[in-house]
Amino acid sequence: MRLPLMLLLAVAGCARMDHIGKPPSFTPTMNTTEQLAMLDPGLPLESAGRVPVREASLWDGGRKSLLGDRRAARRGDILTVVVEIDEEAEISNATSRARNGSENLAIPDLFGLPQRVNRNLPEGASLDPAVGISSTSRSGGNGSVKRSEELTLRVAATVMQVLPNGVLEIQGSQEVRVNFELREMLVTGFVRPEDISRQNEITYDKIAAARISYGGRGQITDVQQPRIGQQVLDVVLPF
Description:
This protein is an alpha+beta fold. The chain has two domains: about 30-40 and about 50-90 and about 150-230 and about 230-235, no CATH class; about 90-145, no CATH class. It has helices at about 1-15, 35-40, 50-55, 115-120, 220-225, 230-235, and strands at about 80-105, 130-160, 170-180, 180-190, 200-205, 210-220.
């Protein structure tokens, strides 16, 4: 039991050891999935015999020509993802419920038994009524949700692969370090080539299965987060 606890504390501490006395380190860019996608030439789109003819013309339809389409379309191409989130939501619910119930049971005549029993009962007691039950219940609830989000970012993403139906799988990352705090942004998802604008940009609302993460790591983030032991106790303790 002691060994797993020590290993847990060691792993948790290694994440903070990186920026003790110095700014947090950037994530390496070499040998990443994005770099490997850029190094992959992909399948040739033109036959070898037609390449010299097309390169000699200024008005051909190639990607490098003056009027060519330079939008991302192949594995390793780069496009810009524009994230502009300005949303507000407000939900309010109210419920109220009330119920009254009453039950009475009387046995004034049962072969003359109530009259005989009443003689032996204490003063004020009687079998008429024999049983009386009443109940009242009331419940009410109020709930409200108010959310406001505003985020404006731009990040370059790489085409990781082209799916059989022509949809592009993209992935992008960006890191900005200011003093001892590192802000990082991650974007992944699937886009259609026809949704990419002529400026080689696409908005986040046209990305299917979009996953956008904007956070950071550093000394300020460490102070804002509870310690590992406190997080474990919050999960274990039932109260």
